[in-house]
Specification:
3-stranded antiparallel beta sheet, 3 strands, 2 domains, 49% helix, alpha+beta, Double Stranded RNA Binding Domain
Length: 143
C-alpha cells in the first residue's frame, strides 16, 4: 500500500501531537523552545484500518507500539516545531505503508544458456592465464 492511498483515509483526525524540549547540542535555543514532536496514533480505537491491517501493524511495528496500543513516532531533527510535525507525519505514513505492503516473493530462475557458456569461457581463460604463469615461472627457475 502506498502513502498516497493512506492519505485518503484522513488519519490526521486521529493524530495526537505532543511537544517537548529536544535533547542534545544546539545552544540556547534548545533549552528554551519545545521543538521535539511526538505523534501518537491509537491502533486499538481507530476505525480507519481493518482488523487484518491492525494485526499486521502490531506484528511489524511492535517496537514502536506502547502498552496502550498507540503507535509512537518522534522527530527532533529539525529546528522548528512545524518542520518536526511535518517530518513525523511523513514518517508515520512511510512506516504504516511499509508495514502494510506485502513483499514480492522471489521467483527462482535458471541461468540462461548464454550466461552458462560465458561463465565457462571465463573460467577457461582464467585457467589458461594461470597455466601460462606457471610455465613461465618454471623456465626462469631452470636457468
Amino acid at each position: 500500500m502506498t502513502t498516497e492511498e493512506l492519505r485518503y483515509r484522513n488519519f490526521e483526525n486521529e493524530f495526537v501531537y505532543s511537544t517537548s524540549r529536544s535533547g542534545g547540542p544546539g545552544g540556547q535555543n534548545v533549552n528554551k523552545v519545545s521543538t521535539k514532536v511526538e505523534l501518537r496514533f491509537s491502533l486499538i480505537f481507530t476505525s480507519l484500518l481493518s482488523e487484518s491491517e491492525k494485526q499486521l501493524i502490531f506484528v511489524k511495528l511492535k517496537n514502536r507500539i506502547n502498552k496502550e496500543g498507540e503507535l509512537l513516532v518522534v522527530s527532533q531533527s529539525e529546528r522548528t516545531q512545524l518542520m518536526n510535525k511535518k517530518a513525523v507525519t511523513e514518517r508515520f505514513y512511510y512506516l504504516v505503508s511499509k508495514a502494510l505492503t506485502k513483499p514480492v516473493m522471489r521467483r527462482a530462475t535458471k541461468p540462461t544458456a548464454k550466461s552458462n557458456h560465458q561463465r565457462l569461457e571465463e573460467k577457461k581463460n582464467r585457467g589458461l592465464i594461470k597455466k601460462l604463469r606457471k610455465d613461465s615461472n618454471r623456465s626462469s627457475d631452470d636457468i
